[in-house]
Design brief:
Length: about 260
C-alpha cells in the first residue's frame, strides 16, 4: 500500500490536492456544458457519463495513496455496524421532504426518462461520495492523523471545500440563490462524513446521496422543461434548519463516535 511521503508537496499542503481535484472537475463539467445539447435531458446524460469516467480516475487515486481499503469499497455489508440503518434514516428524510413539493399532476413517465433518472442519480452519488468522502476526507485524515480531533478537521474541511465549490454557480445564478446552495452543501457534507466515519464504508453514503438526488430530481426528469424557480429567504432559512437537524446534527454525533474509536486504537 502506497503511503504519502513526508517530503511530498501533498503532505506539506494537504488541502491543495482536494481543491485542485474539485476545481478540475468543475472545469470539465463547464466545458461539457458548452456543447449545444438538444435538451436538458441530453445535457444531464453527458454530465452523468463524465462523472462515471472521473470515478475511474478517483479509484486509481485511492489506490495510489493507499486509501482504497479505508473507504470500505470492498467491505461486505456483514461487516458494517449492526445499527447502520439508524445512521442514514435521518438524512433519508431529506429525500422524502423533496417529494412533498412535487406536483404529480405535471409528471409524465416513460422508460427513457426513468433510465436517465436512475443513471443520473447513481452517477452523482458515486462521483461526489468517492471524491468528497472517499478521497478528500480520508486523504486529509491521513495527512492530519497526528493532530487532535483529526477526524473532525478532515470532515469540516471536505464539507467546506464542497460547499464553496458551489460558488461556481454564480456564473448563471444570483448570489441570493447560490449562497444558500453553499450552506446546504456544507451542512450535508458534514452529515455524509459522519455516516462514513461510523459505518467505515462508503456505500451507505453513496446510497443515501443517490436517494436524495433521485427524490429531488423527480420534477426535473419527469416534468415539463422549465426555468428554475428562485426561492425566498424564509424558504432558504427553513431548508437550512431542516438540513441541520436531519443531517449536520446526526453527522456531528457520528463523527464524535468515530473520533472516540480512533482515540482507542
Amino acid at each position: 500500500m502506497n503511503q504519502i511521503s513526508e517530503q511530498s508537496w501533498v503532505r506539506r499542503y494537504p488541502i491543495l490536492l482536494p481543491v485542485l481535484l474539485i476545481a478540475g472537475s468543475i472545469g470539465l463539467f463547464k466545458l461539457i456544458g458548452l456543447y449545444p445539447y438538444p435538451s436538458r435531458f441530453a445535457d444531464d446524460m453527458a454530465h452523468s457519463s463524465a462523472q462515471l469516467l472521473l470515478c475511474l480516475g478517483l479509484l486509481w487515486l485511492l489506490r495510489r495513496f493507499g486509501l482504497f481499503e479505508q473507504t470500505g469499497l470492498t467491505k461486505p455489508m456483514s461487516q458494517w455496524p449492526r445499527k447502520w440503518p439508524l445512521a442514514v434514516i435521518p438524512m433519508a428524510m431529506i429525500g422524502l421532504i423533496n417529494l412533498l413539493s412535487t406536483d404529480w399532476s405535471q409528471l409524465s413517465f416513460d422508460a427513457i426518462r426513468l433510465g436517465g433518472w436512475i443513471y443520473n442519480s447513481l452517477s452523482t452519488g458515486l462521483f461526489e461520495e468517492i471524491l468528497l468522502r472517499g478521497f478528500c476526507f480520508y486523504f486529509l485524515l491521513q495527512c492530519w492523523r497526528e493532530r487532535k480531533n483529526a477526524l473532525f478537521l478532515a470532515a469540516f474541511a471536505q464539507a467546506l471545500i464542497f460547499g464553496l465549490a458551489h460558488l461556481s454557480n454564480l456564473q448563471h445564478n444570483p448570489a441570493s440563490e447560490v449562497i444558500p446552495q453553499v450552506i446546504y452543501a456544507t451542512l450535508l457534507g458534514i452529515g455524509f462524513a459522519g455516516i462514513m466515519a461510523y459505518t467505515k464504508s462508503i456505500w451507505p453514503a453513496i446510497a443515501i446521496h443517490s436517494l436524495i438526488n433521485a427524490m429531488g430530481d423527480v420534477t426535473t426528469f419527469f416534468g415539463p422543461e422549465q426555468t428554475d424557480n428562485v426561492g425566498n429567504a424564509s424558504g432558504y432559512v427553513a431548508a437550512i434548519l431542516i438540513i441541520f437537524m436531519v443531517s449536520t446534527g446526526p453527522g456531528l454525533y457520528l463523527l464524535h463516535l468515530g473520533q472516540k474509536q480512533l482515540a482507542q486504537r
